[in-house]
Amino acid sequence: MSEAAEELKAPAIKEKSEPLFSKKNRKLLSDPMDDNNPVTVQVLGICSALAITVQLEPSVVMGVSVIVVCAFSNLLISLIRNLIPDRIRIIVQLVVVAFLVILVDQILKAFVYDVSKQLSVFVGLIITNCIIMGRLEAFALQNKPWPALLDGIGNGAAYGAVLVLVAFFRELLGSGKLFGADMLLWLGYEPNGMMILPPMALIVVGLIIWAQRARNTKLIETH
Description:
The chain has nine helices and two strands; from the N terminus they run H-H-H-H-H-H-H-H-E-E-H. By secondary structure, it is mainly alpha-helical. It has one domain. A two-stranded antiparallel ribbon has the order 1-2. A hairpin with a 2-residue loop joins strand 1 (177-178) and strand 2. The longest helix is centred in the C-terminal third of the chain and has 31 residues, at 145-175. The chain is globular and about 60 Å long. The termini are far apart.
């Protein structure tokens, strides 16, 4: 075999043998948790952070729902990316996301009906979640299925982590409970009613953003 043929064959072999969790693929999971967090860096998905973080349980369920929808919508769009005409790509994306959201909503109603009622319309609004649509446009349409799946999991988990963190402080300080169980009340703690008001969610998110930038100074804008 000639040297030219060897050179042409080498990249294909290298690409095929790339580990599933190579450094590049692991970065797809880790980056959204810090340097490229969809909530605290890109400032997306703030509406649900304000509305459903009064208690931990609905926040956890919402976070898991977004992970599932984001991951599998990324995967499906990546699988059919070469078949989607550019002029209708947004419609196709919305159909895929809507199908997954309806599926998740029905599962929630079947197994955690009380939480589903608490989440109300916000599960349905996942269809238009900027994080999910943004990842489909920016990543899934340009990448292979496995990286697209990891990207969806990473961004969904990063979003869910912020929801859970905000809900942790709001429920603990606002009612003295976590998952409905007394945590501070038995110590004589007087619940702070302000913590369960929607503006406090925004303040807590702001404090998380401040703490993140204090730790990771490269996120601070210099202009």
